[in-house]
Design a protein that fits this description.
The complex is a heterodimer of chains A (about 575) and B (about 240). Chain A is mainly beta and about 575 residues long. Chain A is built from six helices and 30 strands. About 0% of the residues of chain B have low confidence. Classes of the chains: A mainly beta (about 575), B mainly beta (about 240). Chain B: GO terms for molecular function: copper ion binding.
Chain lengths: ~575, ~240
């Protein structure tokens, strides 16, 4: 496995650079192959790139044209989506939206004018190939010097590798939505609660959940995975080497199908310098939560000549990934204590402050719009109208993360009691766009039915939905209202999502925005790319069952110029 | 009898034919399928009766429309006869967040007299996690009947599950030929303790089942020298694929 990672890194490096002409074009070759994924405990057949899963790390350079030849060696169609890359829509790699897909035996050539830098990733957008192993990382070297220093760097790709194929997982979820939930409350928990809270309170609490037919343990739909870092299980122990006092840049990518991870390196403070490929003003944290499809770049400076563990515990605490930062190969850090107690959702995550809501359907939540504020003047909004604040009655003693419902069971805490990163901490290093009011707001209610395992937007599944139509040149404000009890990492292809953290022009620019249960979050998008794009929840089985939209950008640079009379 | 058989075949064919174009229309929606055996067990009665009993179902279809087969049976190993052999084919569609309506045909072919029925019903999840399956039947002889199945899964641990179940049958008129009297005809109470051995695919269990007949139905049984009640110790497998 170690060998495989080395191999994939080498292949990635080798794939680089046959400068074809005077214009800066760099050629890369990727083959899509059936591979064996060996985590030590299990061997499964999966899908990978250039013979391994994860695939190689592709290194692009800002300003070049990346020409990538993708050869499909599978006996089914495939595709590659370049997650977070700004590119012509025909190159975006979503079958049925950007292009027809890549048939078996066919080679498709992607041409990407690389106009950005940072950490990104790529993955198949066909069927369940991505959960089955079809993912890899992308590093784009910037043209200009970066506003932070580091001596060496590693990509740290997280993955929730499951013994079952994606197809089988979804079928099982459809038959029985709690098929993989082995963190449900049991008789023992009932007695524990009775002794803690009394029989009446326990019965009434169980009754509240039972009347909704929802489970407070419904945090990770798909448990039973092995957490991988760079394709290696905790036993296989991926190791990144350092010399004491060096500044090490870790490029975290969550390539999981379904799993959010809480990441920490006990003994080291992490300085977050980039989120979703865009530089942010440095934030020192002890721990951060990375949602599915997000990336975070952190810099650490290990001073001692010893091994440090990189621990990523899943949000629902059903699994973890573990790797090592060490001065020499073969070292293993002392295993940090795992937090095995699973969090429980609360009525706040249901969008309710009170439990007594018998018979409500999946949806009726109390959402308070940041009201009174002129939408056009939203850019300069003050903190009292902060995105994500549904609940005006914040009775939490400590300063609560505004991106969780007040009283949510999901609010993370750092294992060492220190600083846990919040979206509210993210500030753009340099604004990517000039600040201006949004032209209009589009409400997207994130909806679903856990018992039927069907997920949707505004109550409508993808196959029944009309596309979202945007006009080139406008700036839209998306209002995400999460009416479900699950978190949803929403990913808009092709254009940036400017997450409203109430920081005005310093709002961070992302490609994936996680919306916690019972919250409302806003993001704005400068509609600056024509074509047709995908917009979806990045949890594989939410996306597959309907939490997905096609976005059509009408018009283009020429039309917009004419209309604006320029 | 022949015409009956033809009618039965005709009804089943019509149901399948009705299903095909509707699914075809919903081609955009993904097609799922599954098989589940809630009960597949060997029973030993309090008078040493031996039985094999099953209660299974399979489906194929989309979120909007499924074709579901439901099969129940009881084989008397002592007499080598099928006490009960039921097959149902229904179309099923959501009517609320947690419930589906279903309609179709049921064909009983035990040792003895056959019957076919038309059926309508609902199935789904009631508040407090009770799984409900309720049906109304009208038989070929015009006799109406009803059945209610309720099941609850109690987690002792996340793998050890205690499942109480309850079934009650009622008839709106007497059908002497199949020995069913008017009124509440029979009921069955079960309690099974299962352990999820392989995922949720294979879960062996042990348990008890008590069943009895009521009213005229019980009298018919007595008249034939059969028991009108029985208690069984059961051991079996719960399956899901």
């Amino acid at each position: 496995m170690k060998y495989q990672t080395v191999k994939s890194t080498l292949l990635g490096a080798l794939a680089v650079l046959a400068l074809s002409s005077a214009s800066q074009a760099a050629k890369y070759d990727l083959s899509v192959d059936y591979v064996t994924i060996d985590t030590g405990e299990m061997k499964t057949r999966g899908i990978g790139y250039n013979g391994s899963s994860p695939g190689p790390t592709l290194r692009f350079r800002e300003g070049e044209e990346a020409v990538i030849n993708v050869t499909n060696n599978l006996d089914e169609a495939t595709s590659i989506h370049w997650h977070g890359l700004i590119l012509p829509y025909q190159m975006d790699g979503v079958p049925g939206i950007s292009f027809p897909g890549i048939e078996p035996g066919e080679t498709f050539t992607y041409r990407i004018p690389v106009s950005q830098s940072g950490t990104y990733w790529f993955h198949s957008h066909s069927g369940f190939q991505e959960p089955d192993g079809a993912y890899g990382s992308i590093i784009i070297e910037p043209q200009k010097r970066e506003p932070f220093k580091f001596d060496r760097e590693y990509v740290v790709v997280l993955k929730d590798k499951h013994p079952h194929s994606g197809e089988r997982i979804l079928r099982n979820l459809k038959m029985m939505p709690d098929y993989y939930n082995r963190k449900q409350r049991t008789l023992g928990d009932f007695f524990e609660d009775v002794s803690k809270n009394g029989l009446g309170a326990t019965l009434s609490e169980r009754g509240d959940w039972g009347s909704m037919r929802m489970m407070p343990t419904d945090i990770e739909d798909v448990q039973g995975f092995v957490g991988l870092i760079n394709g290696m299980s905790p036993d296989q122990n991926w190791t990144g080497l350092f010399k004491p006092d060096e500044r090490v840049r870790l490029r975290f990518i969550n390539a999981s199908a379904m799993t959010y991870f809480d990441v920490r390196i006990p003994g080291l403070e992490m300085t977050v310098v980039q989120a979703d490929g865009n530089n942010v003003q440095p934030v020192k944290v002890d721990e951060f939560r990375i949602s599915v499809a997000e990336t975070y770049d952190v810099i650490v400076q290990p001073k001692e000549d010893k091994a440090y563990p990189i621990l990523a515990e899943s949000m629902g605490r059903s699994g973890f990934a573990l790797a090592t930062l060490a001065p020499r190969q073969g070292m293993r850090a002392e295993m940090p204590e795992l937090r095995t107690e699973a969090p429980l959702l609360t009525m706040a995550d249901m969008g309710m402050s009170h439990g007594d809501m018998a018979g409500m359907d999946h949806g009726a939540m109390t959402s308070v719009d940041p009201s009174g504020d002129d939408k056009d003047a939203m850019a300069g909004m003050d903190h009292s109208n902060m995105a994500g604040m549904d609940h005006s009655n914040m009775d939490m003693g400590e300063k609560a993360d505004p991106f969780y419902a007040a009283g949510s069971g999901l609010i993370p805490k750092a294992a060492n009691g220190g600083k846990f990163l919040s979206y509210a901490d993210l500030k753009a290093q340099k604004p990517l766009y000039a600040e201006r009011p949004a032209t209009r707001e589009i409400e997207l209610r994130l909806t679903g039915n856990m018992e039927r395992y069907s997920w949707s937007i505004n109550g409508v599944k993808y196959e029944d939905a009309e596309p979202i139509r945007l006009k080139y040149g406008e700036r839209v404000r998306f209002k995400f209202v999460n009416e479900t009890m699950m978190t949803h990492p929403m990913h808009l292809h092709g254009m940036w999502s400017i997450l409203d953290t109430g920081k005005g022009k310093w709002n961070p620019v992302k490609h994936t925005i996680s919306i916690n249960p019972g919250t409302t979050v806003y993001s704005e998008t400068e509609v600056d790319e024509p074509g047709e794009w995908a917009f979806h929840c990045h949890l594989s089985y939410h996306m597959a069952t309907g939490m997905f939209r096609k976005v059509i950008v009408e018009g283009g640079p020429t039309v917009a110029e004419l209309e604006n009379g320029k | 009898m022949k015409t009956h058989n033809q009618m039965k075949k005709g009804a089943v064919t019509a149901l399948v034919m009705a299903f095909v174009p509707v699914v075809g229309q919903a081609a955009e929606g993904k097609i799922y399928y599954g098989f589940q055996a809630e009960q597949f067990e060997y029973r030993i009665g309090d008078e040493n009766e031996k039985r094999v009993v099953w209660d299974a179902d399979a489906f194929v279809g989309t979120d909007e429309l499924k074709l579901r087969w439901q099969g129940e049976g009881e084989r008397d190993l002592d007499a080598d006869i099928n006490e009960k052999l039921e097959n149902r084919l229904v179309l099923q569609t959501p009517i609320s967040d947690f419930f589906d309506a279903k309609a179709g045909v049921r064909l009983d072919t035990p040792t003895g007299t056959d019957r076919w029925y038309g059926s309508v019903g609902v199935m789904g999840l009631a508040p407090q996690w009770f799984e409900i399956d309720a049906d109304l039947f009208v038989s070929e002889t015009g006799d109406g009947s009803a059945r209610l199945d309720v099941e609850y899964e109690g987690l002792i641990t996340n793998r050890l599950v205690l499942t109480p179940s309850f079934e009650i049958n009622a008839a709106f008129s007497e059908d002497r030929e199949i020995e069913v009297g008017k009124g509440i005809s029979s009921a069955e109470i079960g309690l099974r303790l299962s352990y999820d051995l392989i995922d949720r695919a294979v879960s062996p269990y042990i348990g008890v089942s008590y069943e009895r007949k009521f009213g005229d139905t019980a009298d018919f049984a007595k008249h034939d020298g059969e028991d009108y009640e029985a208690t069984y110790f059961v051991t079996g497998l719960r399956l899901m694929f």
